[in-house]
Every structure is written in structure tokens, then in C-alpha cells.
Design goal:
With about 200 residues, the protein is an alpha+beta fold. The chain has a single domain, classed as Methylpurine-DNA glycosylase (MPG) (3-methyladenine DNA Glycosylase, Chain A, Roll), CATH 3.10.300. It contains 5 helices and 9 strands; from the N terminus they run H-H-E-E-E-E-E-H-H-E-E-H-E-E. Strands 1, 2, 3, 4, 5, 6, 7, 8 and 9 form a 9-stranded antiparallel sheet that branches. The two termini are about 20 Å apart. The mean pLDDT is about 95.
Length: about 200
């Protein structure tokens, strides 16, 4: 079943946890989400919307269930899913995923990378899916669309820990346990910095 807009119409923290195990489809490529980060609207200084609307972060202020894809360091496109109510400005970053289909196409797009190196890291996820920042703002709940999220296999145990690469944020936000991962998946970055959160 496709995840409907209401799935995303909640706090980014809740949506982030529930995105683990769900699948992303882009043409023949299908990935299972294994690691995410939440960027909340409650004064989170790591959030791109912290200082208000800009042309780049405009999709984050839009309706839930759409993609916010931005260019990092002018090189890597990073995929986020917009959460909360329209006008709130929050999203969940997809940090890592496990390939389920389209292996050959993923290898082509990732320069022949093997194993977890193919899709562990947010830039690698977007590259494997064949999406970039020019697609920012597309809906992720339309059958046949360029990016579709569906129900998948939920993790047994979830890990939580601090987010990665947000040195610009306030100390409390750098330390907040807003990164979540599937404890049993090898497709996770820096597991040692995480601890079990939920057993299901």
C-alpha cells in the first residue's frame, strides 16, 4: 500500500521512526529504508527552516508527503520527506537504505559500488534512485509517479542516536537523539554511536 499524505502529517520525530522499513520506488529501483534523521519545527537549529523560508527550503513549508531534495556541497542530492502540517517547515532525511530491486541500475548509477557502499549515506541513496535536487517538491504518494513510498517490513529493534554532519547547530540540537536506524541492517552509518530505542 502507498503511504498516504496523512502518514506524514505528524511530528517529524514520529514519522522518522515509522519510515524505517518502508520502501521507496523510483522506476525499477526499490529500496528499503534503514536509517533516517528527523528535522523538527520546534526550534531545531539544525533544520533548514530554522531561519525562515528561502527558495531552496520552500518544499519543506509545503504539504506533507512531498520530497525536499537539496544539493549538499554542490555535489550530492539529499532526499528528505516533508512532514507535519503545511506551513510548519519540517522533514525527515533518508540517510541509508537496502536495495531490494534494480541492482544493475544501482550499480550503474553508483559507479560499480558493491555491498552496503551502494546505498549507505544520503547522497548514495539519491544517486541509486536516480533523483536530484531539480525534482524537489514532487509528491511521493501517487501511483506511477517518479518517487513512491509504500509499506514495507518494519524493524524488530530500532536504534537512536545523534544526527551526523550538523556542526553548525546548537549543542543541544547536535546531541539530540533524532537519528534512527534498523538495528539488524548492515545499511547503517556509525552504529556505535546509537543505542536501542524500541523493541517490536
Amino acid at each position: 500500500m502507498i503511504l498516504p499524505p496523512d502518514f506524514y502529517r505528524r511530528d517529524a520525530l514520529e514519522v522518522a521512526i515509522d519510515l524505517l522499513g518502508q520502501t521507496i520506488e523510483a522506476g525499477e529501483v526499490r529500496l528499503r529504508i534503514t536509517e533516517v534523521e528527523a528535522y523538527r519545527s520546534n526550534g531545531d537549529s539544525a533544520n533548514h527552516c530554522f531561519r525562515g523560508p528561502t527558495p531552496r527550503n520552500a518544499p519543506m513549508w509545503g504539504a506533507p508527503g512531498h520530497a525536499y531534495i537539496y544539493l549538499c556541497y554542490g555535489i550530492h542530492s539529499l532526499l528528505n520527506l516533508v512532514t507535519g502540517e503545511e506551513g510548519v517547515g519540517e522533514a525527515v532525511l533518508i540517510r541509508a537504505a537496502e536495495p531490494l530491486a534494480g541492482e544493475e541500475r544501482i550499480r550503474e548509477r553508483r559507479g560499480g559500488a558493491q555491498g552496503k557502499e551502494r546505498t549507505t549515506g544520503p547522497g548514495r541513496v539519491a544517486a541509486a534512485l536516480g533523483i536530484d535536487h531539480r525534482m524537489s517538491g514532487i509528491p511521493c504518494f501517487i501511483e506511477g509517479g517518479p518517487l513512491v513510498l509504500r509499506e514495507g517490513r518494519r524493524p524488530t529493534t530500532i536504534l537512536a542516536g545523534p544526527r551526523i554532519g550538523i556542526d553548525y547547530a546548537a549543542p543541544a540540537d547536535r546531541e539530540a537523539p533524532y537519528r534512527f536506524a534498523d538495528a539488524d541492517s548492515p545499511y547503517v552509518m556509525k552504529k556505535r554511536a546509537m543505542s536501542p530505542l524500541i523493541a517490536r
